[in-house]
Amino acid sequence: MRKEENNDPKDVQRKGKAKMQLKRNIGYFDGVSFIIGSIVGAGIFVSPTGVLKHSLLNVGVALTIWTASGLVSLMGALCYAELGTALPFSGGEYSHIKRGLGSLPAFVFIWTSTFTKPASNAARALLFAEYATQPFYGICPAPDVLKKCLALAVLWSLGILNGLSVKMSAWVQTVFTLLKMMALSVIAVGGIVLLVTRQKESLARFEDMFSSEIPNASQVAEAFFQGLYAYGGWWSLNYMAEEMKHPSRNIPLTVMTAVPAVIVFYLLVNISYLTVLTPKEIVSSVAVAVTWADRVIPSVAWIIPLSVAVSIFGALNCSMFTLGRLSYAGSQSGHLPVLISMLNVHSYTPAPAMIFSTTIASIFIIPSDLIMLTNYFGFSAWLMTGLTCASLIVLRYREPHLHRPYKVFLPVPFMMVAMSFFLVLAPIVWSPNMQYVYAFLFMLGSLIIYLPFIHFKWRFAFLDKITCHLQLLLEVCPADGPAEGKCE
Known about the structure:
Structural class: mainly alpha
Radius of gyration: 23 Å
Order of helices and strands: HHHHHHHHHHHHHHHHEHHHHHHHEH
Strand order of the largest sheet: 1-2
Largest sheet: 2 strands, antiparallel
Low-confidence stretches: 1-17, 482-488
Helix content: over 70%
């Protein structure tokens, strides 16, 4: 009874309010799993051929480009590590662009990402469904309806999981990252063993690595595009910076562990492929890892298609986790409906944000042709990377006294800005297409929403009533103050 008497209602309310925020449940190993899981998808198993093809089958040039692409990705990740430790809030690039360059560029980012990122998740879910159903149909294609139903089931299963528990989502991510790295280890170790023990032609392929035709500048650039695409996802940790334990220490440490580990594995896997297959065989193969397994471990070659499905599932879980945090951060800043920034009162997770992003991804799955339209927004990812690194430079000069537990060497963000805008302009200049114009117009179309609803703050009373009813239905309430408010 004495305890009940001491529980003053105001005290209880204050304590409850103080706790209504995202919890720091993600540790160092979880962060490593999220970064590796986000980078390593199906590509390294199925079609790591783009770099070799555009390198004109020159093994030395191809391996050099794989290494250079990894180093550029590491440079970008280190820039993001500075921003993540100085501004450890949810939202990744969105939060950093808003702080450094202002509200409008940040809104253009979230406007574009609200469509392109769910479309990417939908594509991953469909690809998972393709690999998961194909063993049951042999050489026949699986029905589209079945694949779409399975893709929707996977999307909503992961959406619900991420909406219910951060710890469970992190556990799933760790398990699936370990499984995919075990599969890559089988390929990498198998290649090393064969390279040491096999006949001379395998060694000769590496002794004269640069002996074949050297690609020209445009071909090297195209190969570089392919390599950087394979490393995509190194930016994922900043989306969950608000939930990292000891972010000042763990964010840089996680980045410096995960990205170099992926570089090493990518190089070893490519060397393994080249040990078993000729460059022409690799380029002509539909699924390189499957062809490799048929040659090296034919009795258990079935593990490779299974590994691809596992890899896609892990990458999808990470992508959905980060997208929920982006929606959550955008809503906190007033760029998305207020309901999306609310947290579940039981699990302290951004459940409305997960429902919002999963619903949009589901819409893309039903008429899957819509996913093709978002392919022309590929340049926007590097545009936003460039703007994020530019924000770092702006903040260095505008806020010199901002506490920065980790600081990257200043020329690095300048190099990343130059590299990013080259990657934005190069495909448009080399392969001009009207679809790029449509993509730019779509991004500019964000002004139609921004001016009335964000700048002039138009509001509709009936939306407040809908928000109230949904808040009661979902058992959510506002978080304890917006992250951006805390950093400003």
